[in-house]
Please model this.
Amino acid sequence: MPRTPSSSPIAKPPTQRATTVFRRAGGILRTQETKAAGIHPRTLAAMVEGGTVLRLGRGVYQLADAAPSEPDLAVVARKVPKAIVCLVSALAHHRLTTQIPHAVDLAVPRGFKDRKLEHPPVRFYRFGDASLAAGVERIKVGGRELRVYGAAKTVADCFKFRNKIGKDIAIEALRTYLRRKDAKPGNRVRDLMHFARINRVQAVMAPYIESAL
Model:
């Protein structure tokens, strides 16, 4: 009786396998992650040349059709995972400002050694322990978890750092936050004053809150 030749599964092309790896990681990988996943440097280079993968910065690659809504934050989530997005960058995330951030603002503990990234540019701000830990939210960007301060905490932080970022930015954010319809005015004021006390700027913020109501 004639033997039926056994069929073996057809191996996927290297670029197809690499694309699957990128998708499982949320669309963004660092160089060492591609190597650990078995993606050959020649395969990665071919994908960049063909436009399938974008090079966001030194050692960070993104699948072209899986771009996150906030690509700079996605890179930061990869490169500075312990930092917390704050101030103007957090305002932009919460849609509380008309400013366009030219760098990603990051809150770090005192004693943190600054890191310079090729992309995106970053600005580090030293927060005290109580303020650093307060009002942190966790979001997903590029398949990674990133910490960012909530809306009310960010407004209070802007008043704390008003001499560095500009008091007009802090006031605009406060008024925009108080006009929101997603919570009762009393609750918004309560949250603002809670974080204002942590930052010791309640006396500074109170007159602006009263005039905005």
User: Anything to note?
Assistant: Residues 27 and 66 are 5 Å apart (CA to CA).
